[in-house]
C-alpha cells in the first residue's frame, strides 16, 4: 500500500520513523504530540484511508465478501442439520417423556413410517431421502445404498426364503446367521463386563410383576403360546425416558458402545423375557445392516434360538450375535420351576457397513422421517 501526501510536503510520522538519526525517538514523540492536536493530521489520515480503498479492486473485495458469507452460511447449515448424536443420559433424565408413548412403549403413529410402511411408495421415499442427504453432504461412499434403494424390490423378491429382510436390504454385505464375538469385540466385552449391573437392574424391575400382571413400561408381544414381554430402553431409534430412568446404569452403558444403532429406526435396546412354554413365531427382521446382540441374563435349560435353521443356546454373562434378517425363532421348553429366559438385546452395526454409509442410513431412516 502506497502512502501519497495530499498537501505540501512536510515531515510526518513515516518519514521520521525511517530517518536514520539518533534523534529519531525524540522527534517522533514531539511530532505525535503536535499531530494529536492538529486537525490536519486527522484529515490526512482519513484521506489516506479513502485513497487506499480506491486503490483496491472493488470486484475482488465484493467477491471475497460474498464467499465469506456463503462459507459462514454453509457451516451454520451443516452444523444445524448434522445427524443427531446419541442422547446423553443427563438430558434424557431432565427431558419430558416422548410423545406417543403407551405403557412406556413407543408405538408408531405415522402411516408414512419407513419402518412400518410396506407399500409401493416406500422405495421412492427412501430414494428421496438419499438424494436429500447427498445434496447436504456428499454422494461419496453411497454406491451400495444407491444400488440397494434403486433395486430394492428385486432384491427383496428374489431373496431366498432363509433371509428376507422386510424393509431394507443392503447388497454386497457378507451374510451368515451367526457372528463371532470378534465381529464387534469391544462392545461384546463391554456388555459382558457389565453383566451384573444389567442383571441387578432387571431383577429390581421384575419384582413389580408380583403386584400386577403387566407393570408399566413392559410390552406384551403376540405369541402362539406362552408369554413374551419386553422392556424397551430404545425403541426404533427413540429413547423411552420413563424406562431409562428405571435402568440408568444400563442406559449409560449404551452410550459407551461404539457400534450401537441409536439414531435410526432399526436400532433397539431392551430386556426380553420368555416365560416357560413360550414359542415365538418364525419371522424376519427389517434389515441386514445390523447385528442383533443377546446378552444372557437368565438362561435355564430347554431354551433355544434358531436362526437360518441353525440352533444355538444362550449362556449367562455371554453375548450371542446373529443376523435377524434370517428367518429366526426362539422358544422356552423348560418347566415353571426353571423360571423365565431373560436376555438384554441391543442392535449393533454390521461390521461391513462403512462409517459414511452409517451416517447416511441414520439420515435416511431417522425416526419420524
Automatic annotation (TrEMBL):
Keywords: Dioxygenase, Membrane, Oxidoreductase, Signal-anchor, Transmembrane, Transmembrane helix. Its main location: membrane. It is found in: Membrane. GO terms for cellular component: membrane. Residues 192-351 form the Aspartyl/asparaginy/proline hydroxylase domain. The keyword Amino-acid biosynthesis does not apply. It is a single-pass type II membrane protein. One of its GO terms (molecular function) is dioxygenase activity. InterPro entries: Asp/Arg/Pro-Hydrxlase (IPR007803), Asp/Asn_beta-hydroxylase (IPR051821), IPNS-like_sf (IPR027443). Belongs to the aspartyl/asparaginyl beta-hydroxylase family. May function as 2-oxoglutarate-dependent dioxygenase. PANTHER family: ASPARTATE BETA-HYDROXYLASE DOMAIN-CONTAINING PROTEIN 2 (PTHR46332). This is Aspartate beta-hydroxylase domain-containing protein 2. It comes from Suricata suricatta. The lineage of its organism: Eukaryota, Metazoa, Chordata, Craniata, Vertebrata.
